[in-house]
Amino acid sequence: MDENGKRSDGRGIDELRSIKITVGVVKNADGSAYIEFGKNKIIVAVYGPREVHPKHMALPDRCVLRCRYHMSPFSTDTRKNPAPSRREVEISKVMRESLEPSLILSDYPRAVIDVFVEVLQADGGSRCAGINAASVALADAGINMRDLVSACAAGRLSDNIVLDINDLEDKEGDADMPVAYLPNLEQVTLLQLDGKLTTTQFSECLEKAISGCKSVYEIQKEALMKKYFGNEMELKEEA
Questions:
Q1: Are 144 and 107 in contact (CB under 8 A)?
Q2: In angstroms, rounded to a whole number, what is the distance separating the alpha carbons of residues 164 and 125?
Q3: From CA 120, how far away is CA 71, in angstroms rounded?
Q4: What angle do CA 167, 91, 84 make, to 5 degrees?
Q5: Which one in 106, 125, 164, 217 has a CA-CA gap of 20 to 30 Å to 151?
Q6: Which residues pair with 21 in a beta bridge?
Q7: What is the pTM for the complete model shown?
Q8: How do residues 89-138 score in pLDDT, each as one tens digit?
């Protein structure tokens, strides 16, 4: 941060990067979304509920949720190996566990829902951006949900707790805390911490991340409203 309190990309301490969400971008999918979260560019496609293959994976009382997070070879500065890395396997698991509490999986026994998250361009916070797009894509697919999942990270740069860590701040900063949140239910579905924080800093960081999640939630709702009530929204704005 510079002497004026501005970060490497010119943002203030409590400022989110620009966010743009488009719903229904993959026509063959049951639900889909595209998100630009800062310089992150991620596309998500949802298929299901559908029959489980192989069949022995089916559960008699609920649906199976499968998530696949993948970074394209051209998504980073240096070419990435297209094979799934340990990090991608971990983030796939984290995404599934953060999305599951929002879904009413008992409504679809012996079925599966597949969520494919493809990172086209990465700039720090891609797991949070992917969760945001995946939740919108699940809503677009018509899956029964308790709430949307909104995700945002906060972190520590020297003595400052800042909102929405970018790639440089993630690598050079002192701590990074991704958080996923159900705003209506006021429940945290994901909380990770990479780095060290005092008890006071932890509380401040969590509070700041949740405030970021609530801001993202409004953008998610607006994107869904624009797809399904676009003409009505335009008429209301004109009136």
A1: yes
A2: 8
A3: 7
A4: 95
A5: 106
A6: 35
A7: 0.92
A8: 999 999 999 999 999 999 999 999 999 999 999 998 999 999 999 999 99
